[in-house]
Design brief:
Rossmann fold, DNA-binding, 44% helix, 6-stranded parallel sheet, 333 residues, 6-stranded mixed sheet, homodimer, alpha/beta, 434 Repressor (Amino-terminal Domain), elongated
Amino acid sequence: MVTMEEVAKAAHVSRATVSRVLSNHPSIKMETRSNVMYWVKKLGYEPNQVAQSLAGNRTNIIGVLFSDLSNPLYASLMAAIVHEAEKYGYNVILGDAQREKAREVNIINGFKRRKVDGIIVRPIGTPNKKVYSGINIPMVSLFKQTEKKNIIISSEMGGIQVAKHFLELGHKNVGYIGPLKSLAGNNKLQGFRSEFEKYGIKLKAVLECNQHETAENQKSFEIINQYFETHNPAKITAWFAHSDLVASDVIRSLAKHDIQVPRDVIVCGYNNTLLAKKMIPTLSSVASPIEELAENAVSMLINEINGSNEETEVIDLYPRLIVRESTSKGLYK
Amino acid sequence: MVTMEEVAKAAHVSRATVSRVLSNHPSIKMETRSNVMYWVKKLGYEPNQVAQSLAGNRTNIIGVLFSDLSNPLYASLMAAIVHEAEKYGYNVILGDAQREKAREVNIINGFKRRKVDGIIVRPIGTPNKKVYSGINIPMVSLFKQTEKKNIIISSEMGGIQVAKHFLELGHKNVGYIGPLKSLAGNNKLQGFRSEFEKYGIKLKAVLECNQHETAENQKSFEIINQYFETHNPAKITAWFAHSDLVASDVIRSLAKHDIQVPRDVIVCGYNNTLLAKKMIPTLSSVASPIEELAENAVSMLINEINGSNEETEVIDLYPRLIVRESTSKGLYK
DNA sequence: ATGAAAGCGCTAACAG
DNA sequence: CTGTTAGCGCTTTCAT
């Protein structure tokens, strides 16, 4: 392996000079610079980042921790973060807590031992104060608020947009299906409900399903089927599902009862996954601004790494409803 | 920050001893060990992995490089690799070449500067000999063969399985749609075709579409539509699509022509994505053994890191057809 | 069984 | 503008 020492010798300068040339230090004569660069190239020298990290007290690595990478939303978010970090010359070390709080702590401790310059985390459930307040390195939390920097995507706003869309299409018999206990689920419902209440309209059904975002979990299908056993499936003409997966289950159940989407009933999902884009019918869905989220998270983090203020801060991002076939037809009753 | 030095002082031993205790060196008296551990805990000492890496000449990091993370298959593979690596105490640094060869090289060079202990890579297109042969650290290639270690998933076998399935259902008028130029596409087709040829059956249609695995790309939809303009859509009763996305387009186009799947025509996809699991109808699809792939890749790599043989090696994994609604009915003509 | 000492390859004052 | 020097925090012979 070629070391800086060897370059220095070949170029008849000190290691310090080589180091300066490589880090574009201003006080270097053009001549020395080109001489050094000549030898750097000639010898094929590549700096050892581990040594740089130790000496420079800076790794240029950020740790990214997800609550659950099997959720496709997070998988694409992760890609976006990697791309964004790369622009700033940062590498990403990845952690997946797989919905287990214990892992969450372990992974964060691992990040610390690695001396990552900062952490981006999507916490599991309600962020544990003990864990998150005690983190003494730059941190940005996604989706959940902590005492550090935070980027939130307003689920309430998502619900409101869907409600407005349903209202425009003239629907008054509407239902929601999704989790009620989780914060995100609750907020979606809040927004959705409040918008209808402005017009004195009450939700005709609120079905609870606290399922995880995995394809194998069929709970929501059973729940909606069960509901249709005792209720006329055609009565509610517009369903808001808390995820695309659940929306797919709703459509499937409706189909089982010979109800067509969107001809008879319309359905809206959430997350704008592949499924929404390619299902038949394609699914209207609320899209989170993934790229924007990644950009904000990375730049916010790097600002803090570079020593900007360290106070609590919250950025609110808004999701956007993407209308597709599944809500493409109004009923105008 | 608590350093090893401080622990050593507190415990009245040398740093070497602390180091030995922490790395479970055998020649340490029980008494010293517990004394040292007492102070380690008391002071909350956490080893600095950057320093360990520099001194120990080993980072316990593996670099993982994908050709294109927007492909959902790779996103889940990545999660599996992260989980697997964690079991061995390794962290993963992630790279995404985004289908650009130039990035591929840059990222690999970045990995080298980071002194990763090994690299797992899914190369873009045909692996560039210059790039891949010259990598002088342990490496495992996924899906494509290089002169290093390789794990291949036989696409040919996937095609064969689909063909067998179609044959069992009595289908003789069958078509393929997918890329012909890429290796994987070609192999799928080879396997599919050869199985039918055993029975003297020729494929009735082979449609080329070299699309990327992104939801936005509608090319395959146009291609199949175009085909149906000049061919009776009901004539081919079984389609093999090279991906779930393309399969979805086929089904959509058939629906447009009032052909129902699977009642009139059956369709099989590839990759076993979320889409396949949740579409309506659910989609039969060929699943790659992601977990197995991750396990093999990581253990193969770590074996090489730990100095096992360094010869070229190839592991062949087989995909598995998962039958769902879209091919659930035979025609028995 | 433990300590002393020599690095790992680089950065960053401090001097000149 | 460049060189000298002192580390960064740990591992690992080589002694004892």
